[in-house]
Every structure is written in structure tokens, then in C-alpha cells.
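HOLO CASE FILE
Compound: sodium ion
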Amino acid sequence: AAKPVTVAAIRAAKSATPLVCLTAYTTPVAEALDEASDLLLVGDSLGMVVYGLPSTIPVTLDMMIAHGAAVVRGARHALVVVDLPFGAYQESPAQAFRNAARILAETGCGAVKLEGGAVMAETIAFLTQRGIPVLAHIGLQPQSVNALGGYAARGKLAAEAETILADARAVTDAGAFAVVVEGVVAPLAARITETIRVPTIGIGASAECDGQILVTDDMMGVTFGHVPKFVRKYADVGATMKAAAESYAADVRARRFPAEEHLYGMPKPKIAAG
Ligand code: KIV
Ligand code: NA
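Model generated. C-alpha cells follow.
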């Protein structure tokens, strides 16, 4: 098996072979994705993907820790990064440190991710200077959906693009080892990638980013609702599951399942020697 991927290795991957990143929320899925991936993100997208919540806002620290620990148990190779959920870090650098330290200690993951640009620079510096590696997340920030009023792409207007570029610089200067760039117009993602010295990991951003990430359930076709434009569907696992359930239902109703090979019989009687 390949050596475990470190934070230092991710940071050093700038403009080398693109970084392969996917989300994971459970042990078996982490086991399935581990070899192919450089980084597995336990995203707070699990609120929508796993729990059917309307946004990432209601996701709790306890949920992130439970799923983070599950993913770490399934990953031997990829770096596991766990999202700090809404409300767990925005108050102060001290609050962010306390909760990020719990995530690191209780899951065994290698780093945390948090949303925010320049406003989070002080917090990112506070964490990274005290032993907690931080993956930054700029551009579209789903935890700010109530303030921003939707999930539309960012950076179409020049002023907004300059702000996002300044965010990228600020989180890099604060010590982030890489930056997720979500939902920004492609030329801006390319410009950010050219500008900062740590890898950019794009989602709905640009092929010129230093890596890509997708929500696994979206690209595997597990999610039944709306799938964003930037997702390429690599499998239709949802349809496979539906078909399996229908086959099982037909077998049970026709008494074709269970069959002889699935049954526990009584032990064969021993023939008395005589
Ligand atoms: O929560 C998540 O899955 C994420 C990625 C999409 C970047 O933050
Ligand atoms: Na997230």
C-alpha cells in the first residue's frame, strides 16, 4: 500500500499532478475511495446528503466528530480532513481552536476545514500556529446561504472577483495548507491558482485548479434530488440500489429467497459405531 498522504505532501503538490479529493461520511465508503484519493473530506454537506437537512446550517460538532471518526477508520492512504460546522468557529479564534482540537483528538483526522476568507485569517493563523492544519474554503460558502441568499456562482462582477482574490491571499498568508475554491467563475479560479503559493482545490471552479473535489454521492448518482451543473456523474449507484431492492422484493414475494444455500440446517445425526 502507498504511504499515507500528509498535509506537507498536499501543500507541496502545487502545480504538480492534480490532487484527487472526494467527500466521505462512512467507513465503507472511505475504504472504497481511499486508494484513488489524495484527500477525503468529511464535509458538512453530510447534513444534506446523509441526513436530508435543507442546508448545512443545522449540522452539529457531534455529527462531524462521529462521521470523522468513521472515515478515519476506513482510510489508510488519503489525508482525512473534517469540516468545522456552522457555529463552531465563527465566534472567536479561541472557540475555533477548542472545537478543532476536539475534532483532531476525537477523530484522528489530519486537518480541519473552515469557510471564510479575510475575515477568518486571524482564526486560521491562530489554529495553524498552534498545531492544527487548516484547509481554507473561499468563493461560494454554503454556511453563509442565509446572508448571501442562494448558491449562485461568485466573481462575475469585477469588484467581487477582487474581494475573492484578496480572500485567497489572506487565507494563504494566514497559513492555510490549501484552499477550496467553490462556485466561482472559471477565469477567477485560474487567477487565484496562479496567484497563491498553496494548492487550490476546485469545485465548480476550473480545470486549472491544483486539484478537484466533488461530493461523492453526487458523482456516484446516489443523491436523488437536484445535482449541480459542475458535477460529472461517474456511476448510477442510486439506480443500482433501486433495482436491487426491486429484485429482492420480487424474490421474497415469490418465496425464491432465501434458498437452500442461505439456510442453517440441523447437524447431521452421528452414526453410532458398533
Ligand atoms: O461539505 C462539503 O462537502 C464541502 C465540499 C463540497 C468542498 O465543503
Ligand atoms: Na462543507
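CASE NOTES: The two ends are 57 Å apart (CA to CA). Strands lie at 19-23, 39-42, 79-83, 111-115, 134-139, 178-182, 200-203, 211-214.
CLOSED: yes
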